[in-house]
Write a structure and sequence with these properties.
Layout: H1 2-31, H2 61-75, E1 78-79, E2 95-96, H3 98-109, H4 113-123, H5 144-154, E3 156-157, E4 177-181, E5 189-197, E6 203-206, E7 215-216, E8 223-229
Parallel strand pairs: 1-2
Antiparallel strand pairs: 3-8, 4-5, 4-8, 5-6, 6-7
Helix pairs in contact: 2-3
Length: about 240
C-alpha cells in the first residue's frame, strides 16, 4: 500500500511538471517584452536619416535623438516638475518630466532646445498658449503646449493616424517626437520614438510620465496631437541654438 502511494505521488509530480512546462511554453512569449518587439526589417521599412550631425560625432541627428532618449530612459530620473530658479530652470539629471527627456535628447545630439524655444517665445510670445504675461525662460520650455507650437512652426509635421488606411508604419521613425494628450486637443505629454515596433508597426516610445519603465509600447494609449521630425535646416538662424561645448 505504501509503495502504491509513492507511485501515485511520483505520477502526480510528473503530471504537475508537465502541466507547468506546457504552461510556460505558452506564457513566456506573452510575458517577455522581447517577444512583442518588431523592427523596421520586419515591416520592410527603410530608416529615414538626417543630413545633419550637429555634434559631429558621426551619428546623424535622428538616431542621435533616439540615443539621447534611450539614455534618459535608462537613467530613469525621478518624476518631478518643480519650478527651478537655478541652472536656467533645468533640473539635475536625477529628476525630470516628459519635456526634460526631449531637451536632454536634443542636447545629446548637439542642440540647445530650451534656448531655441525661449528665443522664439521672446520674439513671438503671442504664438505660445502657455505664456501668460511676460515670458518666463525658467519654465516656458518645459510646457508641452509650448513645445508643440515650436515643433509645429519649425519641424516637419507628419501623420498622426495610428490605424486604418491612413496609417503607414514607414511614416513613424526612431527619433520622431510626438505630443500627446488624454483626449481632444489637450496637450499633457510628449515622447521620442524608438526603433522597436508593435505588432502593427507602431514604434515604442521613450517618455517620462512617472511610469515604471520609461521605454514602452504605450503610444496607443494616448491621443496623438502632433507627430514631428526635427530638421535644423528649417529653423531660422535667429532661433537655432547649438549646445555649448
Amino acid at each position: 500500500m505504501r509503495g502504491r502511494r509513492i507511485g501515485y505521488a511520483v505520477i502526480a509530480a510528473a503530471l504537475a511538471a508537465t502541466i507547468i512546462g506546457v504552461s510556460l511554453v505558452f506564457l513566456i512569449p506573452r510575458l517577455s517584452p522581447a517577444a512583442t518587439r518588431f523592427s523596421d526589417a520586419d515591416f520592410g521599412i527603410e530608416r529615414t536619416t538626417s543630413a545633419a550631425d550637429a555634434d559631429h560625432d558621426g551619428i546623424e541627428d535622428y538616431w542621435d535623438f533616439w540615443l539621447g532618449a534611450q539614455a534618459e530612459a535608462e537613467r530613469h530620473p525621478r518624476y518631478d516638475g518643480a519650478y527651478l530658479t537655478s541652472n536656467g530652470g533645468r533640473p539635475d539629471p536625477a529628476t525630470g518630466v516628459c519635456t526634460d527627456l526631449i531637451w536632454r535628447a536634443f542636447r545629446d545630439a548637439g542642440y540647445d532646445l530650451p534656448a531655441m524655444i525661449n528665443a522664439d517665445i521672446a520674439a513671438h510670445p503671442a504664438d505660445y498658449p502657455r505664456v501668460a504675461g511676460a515670458p518666463d525662460p525658467l519654465i516656458d520650455f518645459r510646457r508641452v503646449p509650448n513645445l508643440h507650437v515650436f515643433l509645429t512652426k519649425y519641424a516637419l509635421s507628419l501623420p498622426t493616424a495610428i490605424d486604418g488606411a491612413e496609417f503607414d508604419p514607414a511614416d513613424w521613425q526612431a527619433g520622431d517626437i510626438v505630443t500627446l494628450g488624454p483626449g481632444g486637443d489637450r496637450l499633457t505629454h510628449t515622447g521620442i520614438l524608438g526603433p522597436d515596433r508593435d505588432t502593427q508597426g507602431l514604434p515604442w516610445m521613450a517618455h517620462n510620465g512617472g511610469q515604471r519603465e520609461l521605454y514602452d509600447d504605450d503610444l496607443r494609449a494616448w491621443r496623438i496631437v502632433g507627430h514631428f521630425r526635427f530638421d535644423a535646416a528649417r529653423v531660422p538662424d535667429a532661433v537655432l541654438r547649438l549646445w555649448p561645448h
